[in-house]
Structures are given as C-alpha cells and as structure tokens.
C-alpha cells in the first residue's frame, strides 16, 4: 500500500522495535531535539525496543551511544547500527576473511571492517580487494585519490551511504555521497552502497533484535522512508529534520511514509488515517484536504500541533490519490505546512 495507514493504538504498543534515525530525529548536530527523549523513553516504557540506525560511518557505536545518553536517551552500544557495520556486512558477501580492504573513512569504518575479519590497508599499492568508503570530516584529496587508484585497478568499491548532504548547525555540507561521487567521476565505476535507502541496515538490525513488528523512523524521505519501502517495513516520518511536510505531500510513491508525526512523542499516540469523503475531501478528524483542477486545498489549520499534523496527513492523502489516478498536482499550490513554529 502506498498511502498512509491507521494505527488505533499508540505506535509504541503496536510495534516491537523502532529503527530510529539519528540526526534530525533524535538530535540535531550536538543539540537535542525537543521532546525526543520524552518520546523514546516513553516508548521503551511501553515495551518498544530501540535500535538507532545511522548512515554515519565515521563514529563508533560507543561514541553514538554516549552522545544519546548525554541527551537523556539512555543507549547501549549494542543498540546502535551504523552504515560502517552495514558496509562491512556487504563486504562479507564477496570477500573471504583476510582479504585486504582500503578504508577511506573514519575510525568507525576501520573498526567495523577489522571486526568483519578483513585486513585494513591505506594505499592502492597494497593491492586491496575492495575499497570501503565512508564519511569523515578529515578526509582530503590524498585519500580520495588512493580510492580512485584502487578502483581503477579492479578493487570493489563499497560505499557506506550515498547521502549527498550532511546537516550541520551551520547548514548542509557535502555528505559521503558527494565524496563518493568524486571517486566515481574519476573511475567511471558505480559503487555498491550499504546505507539507506538500501534495506541492508534495517534488515541487519531486525535480525539482530529478533523483531517481528519493526517500525522505521526517520526525517528524510530519500533515505529513511525510501529505505523503509525497500525493506517492506512501515515507516514513520517525523517533521523535525530534513524533509518538510510539503516534501511529504509531493513525495514520490517509493519515498512515501506510512505514518506521519510531528516529533517522537507521536510514538505514544494513535495515528488516524485520512478517509475519503464527499466532494473529493480527505478528512483526518477536523482537518481536510482535496485536489481540484490540479490545485491542493486544505482546511482545519490551527495553532495546535496535532491539528496541523492532521492537515498534513489529509494533504498527503489527497495529493497522493490524485497522482495515483494519473492527475498532476501543481507544486505551487502546496503551502509550507510547517507544523512547528519558529
């Protein structure tokens, strides 16, 4: 199903495992996101287990767990799944233990590759069998050049993720995908990717936890929610990070969330689904939206967070239904629909 779904009970009671993205969901840079700790702590109290799944490959799980714990979200390293760990798992599908891997990335990627049984090298002249590339802020031209030389000589190129941008307190900076793109441009070789939106990390985390009813939680349509669709897991979009409510309304089918919440406290709440009604209106409690002649109309917008989120849900349902029926929706008719003030 490509539309929003209903959940009559709080999400924390309906799913046994939350696969939680980090930046834009649990925190933003080094700062906490309002109500994130409240939502995650409350979810745990209701029996939901948590695994934090991140496309960041530069940090050790211990470092991530320490940061979360410092923000009031008590976390053990075993509750963190990084793109570095996923990349190492991908390497095991083609390489035998003891194979040489040129690591271009941070300490987290080095550790993950070593723990998978591979020998880490730093030069293309060491004849590596593969190049594992992940983001690290200290990466520079010499490391990218070594990766390019190795790939040109036949090494298998595996990227931890292909995120083009990286959110920072100052704005968006080039992400790992931008740096991988430099190597790809130099070699003409398209790398394999372990990170979201590939389903690898989600499936590894679910298998490790032995979960039966996982829920993906993220702030990016193109990685978190596309990954949820790829893994065939329900996905919750929280409107505290990169993708906006307007982005959700205009989302491609492969990136649509199954559920939408204002923030992580939405884990403690039921989630109504919009219902079709007369004159083309899609209604969620007191909120409604429809598409007329390609233009989106909404009603029910107030200053209350829950009501604003209901408008977003209705707007998504109306727009998605129109698109799925073969009709265009004018992006210029879709307002910002910002659910948070400021």
Description of the structure:
The chain has 3 domains: 11-82 and 197-268, HAD superfamily/HAD-like (Rossmann fold); 84-193, HAD superfamily/HAD-like (Rossmann fold); 275-333, no CATH class. Strand 14, helix 10 and strand 15 (259-261) form a beta-alpha-beta unit. Strands 5-4-1-13-14-15 form a 6-stranded parallel sheet, with helices on both faces. It has helices at 11-14, 36-45, 61-70, 83-91, 107-115, 141-152, 176-187, 200-209, 221-231, 245-249, 305-324; strands at 17-20, 27-28, 31-32, 49-54, 80-82, 100-104, 119-121, 130-133, 156-159, 165-168, 171-174, 192-193, 214-218, 235-238, 259-261, 275-276, 282-284, 287-292, 295-299. 33% of the residues lie in helices and 21% in strands. Helix 6 packs across helix 7 (176-187). The model has no long low-confidence stretch (mean pLDDT 95). The two termini are 34 Å apart. The chain contains 11 helices and 19 strands. The radius of gyration is 21 Å and the shape is globular. The chain has 342 residues and is α/β, with parallel strands linked by helices.
